[in-house]
User: Which sequence fits this backbone?
């Protein structure tokens, strides 16, 4: 049987919440580990990513998992939320009248998700990003 390297540790500085869309999977991981330089992070990968925190049926499941594992066990200091263009959880880009309307809806959800996290975890820093499709590439833009 093949074997894979294992490293034992319990301090993880960051939790990242993003969509499971396989078209963005490696880019998300590269962005966080290479561009942001965060080698270890808790991954909350779910359809729509941060949208799950805005959803009444999902919110408490996510907040409970973040509290129990990322905060209490891993002692995170930061949470990264990433939304992306053409997200199936929103019906894709085609569900919107134009690209601007799509982004506006997702920005609103990102900010709502940030507020929910800041209220629940006031000591934790929350950063927002938007994964934009540019030709054949993905670029991660910081959102204030
Ligand atoms: Zn998605």
Assistant:
């Amino acid at each position: 049987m093949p074997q894979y390297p294992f490293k034992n540790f319990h301090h993880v500085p960051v939790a990242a919440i993003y969509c499971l869309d396989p078209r963005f999977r490696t880019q998300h991981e590269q962005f966080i580990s290479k561009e942001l330089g965060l080698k270890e992070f808790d991954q909350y990968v779910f359809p729509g990513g941060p949208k799950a925190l805005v959803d009444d049926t999902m919110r408490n499941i996510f907040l409970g998992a973040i509290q129990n594992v990322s905060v209490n066990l891993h002692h995170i200091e930061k949470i990264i939320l990433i939304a992306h263009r053409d997200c199936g959880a929103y019906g894709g880009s085609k569900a919107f009248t134009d690209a601007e309307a799509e982004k506006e809806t997702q920005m609103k959800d990102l900010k709502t998700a940030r507020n929910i996290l800041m209220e629940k975890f006031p000591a934790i820093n929350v950063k927002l990003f938007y994964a934009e499709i540019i030709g054949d590439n993905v670029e991660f833009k910081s959102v204030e």
About this structure: The radius of gyration is 15 Å.
